[in-house]
Write a structure and sequence with these properties.
About 40% of the residues lie in helices and about 15% in strands. By secondary structure, it is of the alpha/beta class. The termini are far apart. It binds FE3-S4 cluster.
């Protein structure tokens, strides 16, 4: 991979150890994937935050990287969800040993200049690249969103690579940064109107088929941004989709010559209904309804507030979101309505990266196919997959 004089000096340690180590990662990646050079980025989103997933080894790596203070993020860089609500972990019943470690991890990231936004929907809280910007994002649903809905360009980076890119302000130029790799290779004709959890079911079906490919959807109705984030999260969890197109909706759909794509699939209401059913793993009672995967938008919180207003919830309810979105929900009175009904808005973390298996829950109700896919495998718990109105039960 070609390096400029300054980039070579960074590799040689002339700008300090943090930058040298970061360049090591980027150059190794570039060499593996045949990148021609590094390209400037405007934004990073860094995953690998929960103590549950990175453990002691991850914490030591970050503290070691931060210790000489020679390198910090040089562009808009935000952090993925950790394993606790950083402020209210005690009230919500998170284990203390875990919360202490979790705060150390988030602090180490902050020392490296990564903002403590703690969300997988950074595009809702100020990390919004422009169309065609090169970026380095790593949480898979956020990658799908930024590539597909915003039209910025990133590969599915690992956490350390996105961190290195944030510090250097560059990433290797290959894969989804290049026009030729952003074309669809599967057309999906959907002949039923989708709503709510149908979008996750569709994404789950297609992700399995397309793997790391690029699907092109022809839908009966027009999805909103919340539907698109649900769809992308599911595509990125059952497959490894980084980019999808929706006809007449996403910004690059017109770059495809759809008539020339040979692989075509047809999805009817039958497949959607079957998948919705298959994502549920038990017929037992739900003890925690956990919404906000990816992290809830203000509109999604408002919808839940409308469902629970004036009622008493039987099971526990968490709506996971960022601290920034919750601040507006507080001002709008949504938080008070949800808390009065017995629910909680939980900041920073989510049902997959939190240690919920240590918190006495057994059956989790979710409206996200990504959560339905990961809660059984990562937490060892059962899930019920359905729309919000059907998951929340009242006294
Ligand atoms: Fe976000 Fe957690 Fe889902 S990180 S996409 S809420 S699994």
């Amino acid at each position: 991979m070609f390096l400029t004089k300054k980039e070579q000096e960074m590799c040689d340690g002339e700008y300090g150890e943090t930058i040298r180590k970061s360049m090591d990662i980027l150059v190794a990646l570039g060499d593996i994937y045949g990148a021609s050079k590094l390209v400037d980025i405007t934004s990073a989103q860094v995953s690998g935050v929960s103590y549950k997933t990175i453990g002691e080894a991850g914490l030591e790596y970050l503290q070691d990287l931060a210790k000489d203070g020679s390198g910090k993020a040089t562009i808009n860089a935000s952090l993925n969800p950790p394993g606790t609500d950083l402020d209210n972990w005690k009230e919500l019943g998170f284990p203390e040993y875990f919360a202490v470690k979790q705060n150390e991890i988030v602090d180490a990231y902050a020392d490296l200049g990564i903002a403590k936004t703690c969300t997988c929907t950074p595009y809702l809280v100020g990390n919004v690249p422009r169309f065609r910007d090169h970026v380095s994002w790593s949480e898979s649903s956020a990658v799908a969103y930024v590539n597909s809905v915003i039209g910025a360009r990133t590969n599915r980076e690992g956490g350390p690579a996105a961190l290195a890119a944030a510090i250097v302000g560059k990433t290797p130029l290959y894969g989804f940064h290049l026009d030729e790799n952003r074309k669809a290779n599967l057309v999906v004709n959907v002949s039923t109107e989708l709503k709510g959890a149908d979008y996750g079911a569709l994404g789950y079906i297609i992700g399995k088929v397309v793997g790391g490919g690029v699907p092109y959807f022809k839908l009966e109705n027009t999805p909103n941004n919340n539907n698109l984030k649900t769809l992308g999260a599911a595509l990125a969890s059952s497959g490894s989709v980084a980019l999808y197109h929706v006809e007449d909706v996403t910004p690059e759909f017109g770059t495809n010559n759809v008539e020339e794509i040979e692989d075509i699939m047809f999805i009817t209401d039958k497949e959607i209904a079957e998948t919705r059913q298959n994502l549920t793993t038990t017929d037992k009672e739900i003890d925690l309804v956990c919404l906000g995967c990816p992290h809830a938008s203000l509109e999604e919180i408002k919808e839940v507030a409308q469902v629970v207003q004036g009622k008493t919830i039987k099971n526990k309810l968490w709506i996971c979101t960022s601290v920034s979105v919750k601040a507006t929900a507080d001002r709008m009175g949504y938080t008070q309505i949800i808390e009065a009904a017995g629910g909680n808005i939980v900041c920073d973390t989510c049902m997959v990266v939190a240690p919920i298996e240590e918190m006495g829950f057994e059956v989790i109700g979710v409206n996200s196919a990504k959560a339905a896919n990961y809660v059984p495998s990562m937490c060892g718990l059962d899930v019920v997959y359905d729309d919000v109105e059907n998951l929340i039960h009242f006294e």
